[in-house]
Specification:
Layout lengths: L6 H23 L7 E6 L1 H9 L10 H16 L6 E4 L4 E6 L4 H20 L1 H4 L7 H17 L5 H12 L28 H9 L3 H7 L2 H9 L14 H8 L1 E4 L4 E4 L2 H22 L1 H18 L8 H13 L5 H25 L10 H4 L2 H8 L3 H4 L18 H9 L14 H7 L17 H9 L10 H6 L5 H12 L2 H8 L2 H7 L3 E5 L4 E6 L2 H12 L7 E8 L4 E6 L8 H15 L3 E9 L2 H10 L6 E9 L4 E6 L1 H4 L19
Parallel strand pairs: 1-3, 9-10
Antiparallel strand pairs: 2-3, 4-5, 6-7, 8-9, 10-11, 11-12
């Protein structure tokens, strides 16, 4: 805990010293490896301010923070929203606890935070920015730098704020699947050589073809035309639009009526905000995994290990149910359910592998031969780890791998409070057996529910040929840690897209009652459309890929050899909002200084088809057409394109294979 000046906060900090210490110890016993966490006690206003600032105390000056603060405050006042905690990805991590929260809430926050910190420290997507971020210092430096620009008398404050606004419209247009590479202020730009400069000057002179032939010979003019293709860049579509604009962007000078170089302060702000986008990207990419992970371990510590006292449990359970029961795409509930499903299926697979090696049992007769009640009874935790009885301490063998020898010695001396913290007596292996998922009341159907297809698949890929004479012999060697071990492996390498893609199955969808719904153009309402797991998965992919926003790439920085910027929308079946797209093009023009072009695919519904579909209570098929929108700084031009021009943008299915190639197994 960190010291504070307020007497009430000091009292709160003193009360929380023990829970903070014990939660950290328990988290490590459970196999978590978190960053160290500094906890701070703050009041209601400070908490709202921290939430507005994204979990940090110092950020660059901008109106967006005030807007977020006002929204957060109104949510608490009028909508009943409550801020329990905020924690940032840093080393050490910093967590902020609201002074007015009940003790049960504070304990829940502390256990939740320890799991978040473990995720920050061990998930490889966070290492794409830095494994040792020191983010608080970085963001503070960024704030000071931008504040210096604002205070500079040679720079208009309003101009700085407008420039930041332009960049923030593109803050998610980075390549979050690649490591962050900073761009230096004086890095040379390809546009130092003005591609198409001669051609542009000829266009500005508005010379007739006849005059051009008189001034320049035909061979030279033809050479200019032949070189058009060689001036196209980048070689491949570039997803990091902010980096591209940092390297090649300019600003339009209305007096000179041409594009000029960005000022040094503009280049620096561009790179500052690009760096911050990369820093925050992993948190957006792993929201389901991270919140589910924290909810899983919080629940285990608070409920299963009685970290919430008897007088606190009902309050904790009530608040937890509200968090998990909130509507919409809830990352807490979806993440928790997926982690529990992974744990159960991994434990089930391990048990089934052993049972299939029992004489007389095969995948064909598995359901008819196995007494699942008997199996679950055999899997129940040893009474030694299921409960802690002081009178049994002298009978415990010191060599038992499930027992913490040091704690056992202290317990026998009476110097450890096992009544409050029974988990202290156990090692990771002991705690895994103590909390084995398959024998929990809510999960007892998992083993018997396994399909014949899954049994056949497991049998086909079993390489261990050891056989057992009985079910009891097979279960005697069950490893209770396999579920948790597998969960930690997955925590290391996945993001939300790959997590949902790999582990969301038909069994999961059926068990947790997931379904898809669609807007019906024919009737103007929403309807449930499918419970098929592929449909559910595809729907989630659309919300998760590229943070749920359209994927736009730089296709050409010298479009038609006129220094225009060509952007392309990687269409995934969801059309752009054209008016919003135009607003964004206006912002990009301010960072490019020359005309900006966007190519996309739009969907159009025929009125006659809509009427027919309405009568038949069906959904019409839209017509997909190519669209090109051009903004020259003054006006928009919009035209329909031939399908050949946009065919490469059309998706036959949702593309959500987003693992870096070097991470693929």
């Amino acid at each position: 805990m960190k010291p504070t000046d307020d007497v009430h906060m000091q009292r709160e900090a003193k009360q929380l010293e023990e829970p903070v210490t014990e939660a950290s110890v328990l988290a490590k016993k459970l196999g978590l490896k978190p960053y160290d966490v500094n906890y701070w006690i703050v009041d209601y206003d400070d908490m709202n301010e921290l939430i507005a600032y994204g979990g940090f105390q110092n950020r660059y000056p901008h109106w967006r923070w005030g807007m977020t603060y006002d929204r957060q405050q109104k949510q608490g006042q009028f909508l009943g929203g409550k801020a329990f905690e905020i924690v940032n990805n840093d080393k050490p991590a910093h967590a902020f606890l609201q002074e007015s929260n009940a003790l049960s809430d504070q304990k829940a926050v502390i256990t939740h935070v320890e799991a978040h910190s473990d995720f920050f420290a061990n998930n490889e997507w966070f290492a794409m920015f830095s494994r040792d971020p020191n983010a608080a210092a970085m963001l503070s430096r960024h704030g000071e730098t931008i504040d210096d620009f604002i205070q500079d008398t040679d720079i208009e404050r309003a101009e700085v704020e407008r420039f930041i606004d332009h960049i923030l419209c593109l803050e998610d247009n980075i390549d979050q699947y690649q490591p962050y590479e900073p761009l230096m202020r004086d890095e040379p730009s390809e546009t130092d050589v003005d591609y198409g400069e001669v051609s542009d000057e000829l266009d500005e002179l508005d010379l007739s073809e006849e005059v051009q032939r008189q001034v320049f010979d035909e061979e030279w003019l033809e050479g200019q035309r032949e070189n058009d293709d060689s001036t196209t860049f980048p070689e491949e579509p570039e997803k990091d639009i902010l980096a591209f604009l940092r390297r090649h962007g300019k600003q339009y000078d209305e007096t000179a009526e041409k594009a000029i170089e960005l000022e040094d302060w503009q280049k620096e702000i561009l790179e500052i905000l690009r760096a911050e986008s990369y820093y925050f990207a992993p948190q957006k990419m792993t929201k389901i995994m991270n919140e589910g992970w924290a909810s899983y371990w919080e629940s285990l510590m608070m409920a299963d290990e009685n970290f919430a006292g008897a007088d606190e449990f009902l309050t904790y359970a009530d608040h937890m149910s509200k968090v998990l029961g909130s509507g919409g795409m809830n990352p807490y509930s979806l993440g928790l359910e997926l982690w529990e499903y992974i744990e159960n299926t991994e434990n089930r697979r391990h048990v089934v592998e052993r049972l299939l090696r029992v004489e007389g049992i095969s995948w064909r007769n598995f359901h008819d031969t196995i007494d699942f009640t008997h199996v679950l009874n055999q899997l129940e935790p040893d009474p030694l780890v299921a409960s802690v009885e002081r009178e049994q301490l002298d009978d415990i063998e010191v060599s038992d791998p499930r027992i913490d020898e040091e704690t056992l010695a202290k317990a026998r001396e009476g110097t450890v409070d096992l009544d409050s913290y029974p988990w202290k007596l156990f090692t990771y292996e002991g705690l895994a057996e103590r909390h084995y998922s398959l024998v929990k009341p809510a999960n007892k159907g998992y083993l018997g529910r396994i399909s014949r297809e899954e049994l056949e698949r497991i049998s086909r890929y079993m390489f261990d040929t050891e056989r057992y004479d009985s079910v009891e012999d097979a279960l005697a060697g069950v490893e209770y840690t396999v579920g948790w071990d597998r969960m930690r492996e997955i925590r290391e390498s996945h993001n939300d897209v790959t997590f949902v893609d790999e582990f969301l199955t038909q069994e999961f969808v059926d068990e947790n009652n997931y379904f898809t719904y669609e807007y019906m153009h024919s009737s103007g309402d929403y309807r449930a459309t499918s419970t098929d797991y592929e449909a559910v998965k595809k729907k989630l992919m659309l919300e998760l890929t590229n943070f749920g926003k359209p994927t736009i790439v730089v296709a050409d920085g010298n479009f038609q050899n006129r220094n225009e910027l060509l952007l392309e929308h990687q269409y995934n079946g969801v059309a752009l909002d054209i008016e919003q797209a135009k607003d964004t093009l206006e912002r990009i023009f301010e960072l490019w200084g020359r005309p900006v072009v966007l190519r996309t695919i739009d969907t159009v519904y025929d009125d006659h088809d809509l009427e027919v579909a309405r009568r038949r209570d069906s959904e019409p098929e839209p017509e997909e057409t190519g669209v090109e929108i051009r903004f020259d700084g003054t006006a928009f031009e919009e035209e329909e394109l031939d399908w050949e021009d946009v065919n490469h943008l059309a998706a036959t299915d949702v593309d959500y294979d987003t693992k870096p190639e070097d991470w693929l197994a």
